[in-house]
Design goal:
Elements lengths: L11 H14 L18 H5 L2 E2 L7 E2 L6 E5 L1 H7 L4 H4 L6 E5 L5 E5 L11 E4 L2 E2 L19 E8 L3 H4 L6 E7 L7 E9 L2 E12 L3 E12 L4 E2 L7 E15 L4 E16 L6 E2 L3 E19 L2 E13 L8 E12 L6 E14 L8 E2 L5 E16 L3 E11 L6 E11 L3 E12 L3 H5 E7 L2 E5 L8 E15 L2 E21 L4 E24 L2 E14 L15 E12 L5 E10 L10 E13 L2 E8 L5 E2 L5 E2 L2 E9 L1
Parallel strand pairs: 6-9, 27-30
Antiparallel strand pairs: 1-2, 3-8, 4-5, 6-7, 8-9, 10-11, 10-38, 11-12, 12-14, 13-37, 14-15, 15-17, 16-26, 17-18, 18-19, 19-20, 20-22, 21-26, 22-23, 23-24, 24-25, 25-28, 26-27, 28-29, 29-30, 30-31, 31-32, 32-33, 33-34, 34-35, 35-38, 36-37
Length: about 650
C-alpha cells in the first residue's frame, strides 16, 4: 500500500465552510419534528434484531447470521447524501467503489474490482442484475435512490445459496412496497453535475391491493471528470419509468408484480475503460417485468415463486444489440422440526442474445442460447438452544455445458447475550462469461496496443474461503463488528500477452491467497452525534508472477486498504450535518495512488412534507479512482416534497 500525502485535499475546508454557512443561512426557527420513528432511532440491540433475508433466503435477525453482513436502512441511505446507488455502497467496509466515467462505476468486494467486475452478485428484489454475458452491472441505469428501502451487503462466499455469481459476496437491493409509497413525492436534484427529477405516486386498489408509479429524468454533463490525455463521456441523458402492484391476503398470500423501462443516450468514450474503442454516441434501452408469489404455510414457513423477464442493452465498448433472460425459481422455507430449520429451492434461467460487433470490439456468435439450472439446500441445526448453531448448505449449478458444480459451506454460530462469534468454510466457483470466452477487443499494456483474441478454452475459477467474525454490543450506545478471512484462489482467468504478435488471450493461470479483515464501530456519542469509523485491509499474495495480472477484474499484489470515518450530527432540531472522510486505495490498479475523499451532506426538514439538502462530493482536488480520469468536486441541491 502506498500512502500519498495530498495537502490540496484539505483545501476542501473552504468548500465545507461554504456549504455550512449557506445552509445555516436558510434555517428558520425550529419546527415540529416528524412523529414517525425511523430505524436510526433504535438502539443497537434493536438494530441487531432487524430481519434480513439474503443470508438464509428467509427472514432472520442479524444476530442469527453466521457471516459478514452490513444492512443499510432508509436513514443510512438518506444521511449518506447519495444521489445514486453506487454512492450508497461507499459506506460498506470491504466494498470497493470508484467512479470510472460519467455513467460508469467499478464496484467490487474483497480485492476484486473493475467495470466488468465479475466476482459478486447484485440483485434488486431478488432479481439478478449482473449481466450473464459480461458479469458487469449497468450501475448508471439502476433504481432511483428514493425507491430503496434497504440494502443488504453480504461479504464472503455465499455460493451455497446464490450460486456461482456470489463468488465474493452479494449486494441485495430491496425496494419499498407499493403500500410504503402511498401518496405523491417529488425529488429534484440540481447542481454542478446536472439536473434530475424524480416523481412517485401510489394509491390503493380495493381493500387488499396497492400500486405505485415512479419516473426519473436526468441530464449529466460530465464536465467535472477529465484527464491529462483522456476525455470523459459527456451529455448523458437518462429516462426511466417503473411500477409496482402488491396484493396481500391477511392470512396466507402476498403477490407482487413490478416492472421498469429505461432509456439513455451518451457521448461515450474509452478513457474510463481498460479497452480501446472510438468515441461515439451510444443509445441504450432496457427493461424488466417480475412476478412474485409468497404463501405462508406456518408461522415461520412458506413457499415462494419468482419469475422474471429482463432485456438489457450490451453496454461493453462499441458492441451493439442486447441480452434476454427468463428466470423461474421456487423456494420452500420449512417449519422448524426438532433441531432442524431447512430451506431448499430450485431454479432455472434461459438466456439468449443478439449482440453484434462494433468497429474495434466483437463477440463470437456461437453459444448464443444457454439454459442453466440450479438447486440448493440449507439446514440450520441447533446444537445448544439459543446458543450454538451449525449451518450446512450446498448448491448445485449447471451452466449449460460444464459438469454440475457443487458449492458447499459449513458454518458455526455461537450467540451470547450481547455478542456473537461465527466461522465458516466454503467453496465457490465462477463460470466463464460469454464475453470472456468469445470477446475480441483492443487494450493497452506497457504502452503497446494488443488485440485480445478468443481463448482456446476456459474452465471454472475456484475459491476456498475460510472466514471468522465477531459482533458485540458493548453498551447501549457502542457496537463492534469484526470479520477476518482467507481466500485461496485457483485457476482465475487472466490475460497472457504475446509481444511477438501483439496479441493476448485469457487463460486460467492465476493462483493466489488473500488475507483480509474488516471492522466497523458504531458509537452514539450523544443524542446529536454518532460516529461510524471503519477499516478494511487486504494482503494479496499472487503466485509465480513477475508483474501484476491484467484482466477485467484482477487483484493487486501486496497490501491495500481503506480507512473511513462517518460523522452523523443533528446540531439543532430538524437539521442534519453529516461528513464522510476517508483514505481509499485501489485493490486492482498499482499505478494509481490511493487518495483522500471528503463528502458533506446537510439537511433541513422545513416541514413534515418539505426537505432541503446540500450535498458536496469529492471535495478537494480531483482524484483518479482506478482509471486515468480524475473525478472532481461537485455540489448539488436536493429538494424533496411530499404531496
Amino acid at each position: 500500500m502506498q500512502f500519498h500525502s495530498n495537502a490540496k485535499v484539505w483545501d476542501a475546508t473552504g468548500a465545507v465552510a461554504l456549504i455550512i454557512v449557506a445552509f445555516l443561512f436558510l434555517l428558520p426557527c425550529p419546527v415540529r419534528a416528524q412523529d414517525s420513528e425511523t430505524l436510526a432511532s433504535l438502539g443497537l440491540e434493536e438494530l441487531m434484531d432487524v430481519e434480513i433475508v439474503t443470508t438464509s433466503r428467509r427472514a432472520e435477525p442479524l444476530s442469527q447470521v453466521a457471516g459478514a453482513v452490513t444492512v443499510l436502512n432508509e436513514e443510512d441511505i438518506f444521511r449518506s447524501g447519495a444521489t445514486s446507488l453506487p454512492e450508497v455502497l461507499r459506506l460498506v467496509p470491504g466494498v470497493h467503489v470508484a467512479q470510472m466515467d460519467t455513467d460508469k462505476w467499478a464496484i467490487g468486494i474483497r480485492g476484486f474490482n473493475g467495470i466488468l467486475s465479475n466476482k459478486h452478485l447484485v440483485m434488486i428484489d431478488g432479481r439478478p442484475i449482473t449481466s450473464p454475458a459480461t458479469a458487469g452491472v449497468d450501475w448508471g441505469n439502476s433504481i432511483p435512490v428514493n425507491m430503496i428501502k434497504r440494502i443488504e451487503v453480504v461479504r464472503g462466499v455465499w455460493a451455497h445459496l446464490w450460486g456461482a455469481d456470489s463468488f465474493t459476496g452479494v449486494i441485495n437491493i430491496i425496494t419499498k412496497t407499493a403500500e410504503e409509497t402511498q401518496g405523491g413525492q417529488s425529488v429534484t436534484v440540481a447542481g454542478s453535475t446536472g439536473v434530475e427529477q424524480n416523481l412517485r405516486f401510489g394509491g390503493a386498489m380495493g381493500d387488499i391491493g396497492h400500486f405505485s408509479l415512479y419516473s426519473q429524468v436526468g441530464y449529466t454533463s460530465g464536465n467535472w471528470i477529465d484527464g491529462d490525455d483522456a476525455k470523459a463521456s459527456s451529455d448523458w441523458l437518462k429516462k426511466q419509468f417503473g411500477f409496482r402492484m402488491d396484493w396481500e391476503n391477511a392470512f396466507t398470500d402476498a403477490l407482487s408484480f413490478q416492472g421498469n423501462l429505461s432509456t439513455s443516450s451518451i457521448m461515450d468514450g474509452d478513457s474510463g475503460s481498460p479497452h480501446v474503442f472510438d468515441r461515439r454516441k451510444r443509445e441504450d434501452a432496457s427493461g424488466y417485468g417480475q412476478f412474485t408469489w409468497n404463501r405462508a404455510t406456518g408461522l415461520d414457513a412458506g413457499i415462494s415463486l419468482r419469475t422474471s423477464f429482463t432485456r438489457e442493452h450490451a453496454n461493453v465498448d462499441d458492441l451493439e444489440g442486447g441480452t434476454n433472460i427468463i428466470e423461474v425459481e421456487v423456494q420452500h422455507a420449512m417449519e422448524t422440526f426438532g433441531v432442524h430449520r431447512l430451506t431448499w429451492g430450485v431454479g432455472s434461467r434461459y438466456y439468449w442474445d443478439n449482440i453484434r460487433a462494433g468497429e474495434k470490439t466483437s463477440i463470437g456468435q456461437e453459444r448464443r442460447y444457454v439454459f442453466m439450472s440450479n438447486a440448493f439446500a440449507q439446514d440450520r441445526i441447533t446444537l445448544m438452544p439459543e446458543s450454538l448453531y451449525l449451518i450446512l448448505g450446498t448448491k448445485f449449478d449447471y451452466f449449460g455445458e460444464t459438469p454440475v458444480e457443487i458449492q458447499p459451506t459449513i458454518r458455526l454460530l455461537h450467540t451470547r447475550l450481547n455478542e456473537e462469534y461465527w466461522m465458516a468454510v466454503s467453496r465457490a466457483v465462477r463460470a466463464d462469461t460469454r464475453w470472456q470466452r468469445s470477446g475480441t477487443y483492443k487494450t493497452m499494456y506497457n504502452g503497446t496496443m494488443y488485440t485480445v483474441k478468443q481463448p482456446d478454452s476456459l474452465t471454472t475459477e475456484k475459491l476456498m474461503a475460510y472466514e471468522a467474525g465477531y459482533r458485540r454490543r458493548i453498551s447501549e450506545t457502542l457496537g463492534l463488528d469484526v470479520s477476518l478471512y482467507i481466500n485461496d484462489y485457483d485457476e482465475l482467468a487472466m490475460l497472457e500477452f504475446d509481444s511477438a504478435t501483439n496479441t493476448a488471450s485469457l487463460s486460467n493461470s492465476l493462483k493466489g491467497t488473500a488475507y483480509g479483515m474488516e471492522t466497523q464501530l458504531r458509537w452514539q456519542v450523544t443524542d446529536q452525534l454518532e460516529l461510524r469509523p471503519s477499516i478494511s485491509a487486504i494482503y494479496q499474495n499472487l503466485y509465480s508472477l513477475d508483474s501484476n495480472p491484467v484482466g477485467d477484474s484482477m487483484p493487486e499484489e501486496g497490501i491495500i486498504g481503506e480507512v473511513k470515518m462517518q460523522a452523523l450530527t443533528k446540531p439543532v432540531e430538524n437539521v442534519g450535518l453529516d461528513v464522510l472522510v476517508g483514505y481509499v486505495d485501489a485493490p486492482t490498479e498499482r499505478n494509481i495512488p490511493g487518495y483522500l475523499t471528503l463528502e458533506v451532506h446537510s439537511s433541513w426538514r422545513a416541514s413534515d412534507r418539505l426537505m432541503f439538502e446540500l450535498i458536496g462530493k469529492n471535495l478537494g482536488e480531483a482524484t483518479e479512482q482506478y482509471s486515468p480520469l480524475r473525478v472532481g468536486p461537485s455540489l448539488d441541491l436536493r429538494v424533496t416534497w411530499e404531496f
